Amino acid sequence: MDKSFPTDQNDRDALFQRLEAIEAVIARHEALFAKEGHSINDSPETTDGAIHFSGQFENASGSISYSWSRPPHHLLEEAWDSSFTRLSALAHPQRGLILKQLLNDPCSVSTLFQLGVTSSTGTAYHHLNELESAGWVRKGRGGVYEVPTERIIPLLTIISASEHH
Predict the structure, then answer these.
(1) Among 58, 63, 109, 119, which is most buried by a count of CB atoms within 10 Å?
(2) Where are the transmembrane segments (predicted)?
């Protein structure tokens, strides 16, 4: 089967029509699951339970919806080293202030300093480097730092899980 993108307009149109038909089937199935009170997690593969988190978030950059699920045995069988490395990058009050600012409005190092989030640009760079190496922030165009979309809900989940329950 040739997997190259069709060059003929009629072939492309046919491909897009097939894609739209597939998307319509998926949408109907999702609606049916929701209507009947079922979820994807009702399958036999999840009879040992599941650990989930999900959320919606909106800031100056737009809105996102994110969901993640793992069976407990997967989490218990995996090494936790990389998870603890990522978590340890969060364990500093200054980094919490930086992340909070970036969640509200991505900005540059100089803006972090001007807003009083950090005491100097050097301090900002130090903490941003730690957060970036752990995957919690990334540097975008114009030197603007942001929390990557795929890390926003996990970060806020960690914060909410850390609240007093």
Answers:
(1) 109
(2) none
Q: Closest by alpha carbon to 137, among 160, 106, 158, 161?
A: 106
Q: Return the pLDDT at 20.
A: 79
Helix (H) or strand (E) holding 58: strand 51-59
Closest CA to 112 of 136, 103, 92: 103
Average pLDDT per run of 10 along the chain, which is 165 residues long?
A: 68 79 70 54 63 90 89 92 95 97 96 98 98 97 95 96 90
Return the SS3 of 150: helix
| 81-87 LR contacts (CB < 8 Å, sep 24+) | 85/134, 86/134, 86/135, 86/136, 87/158
Domain boundaries, the chain: 9-38, 80-161
CB atoms within 10 A of CB 153: 19
**80-161 belongs to which CATH class?**
mainly alpha
- Residues in Cβ contact with 6 at an 8 Å cutoff, skipping those fewer than 6 apart: 12, 14, 15
Q: Which two tokens stand for residue 82?
A: 């990389």
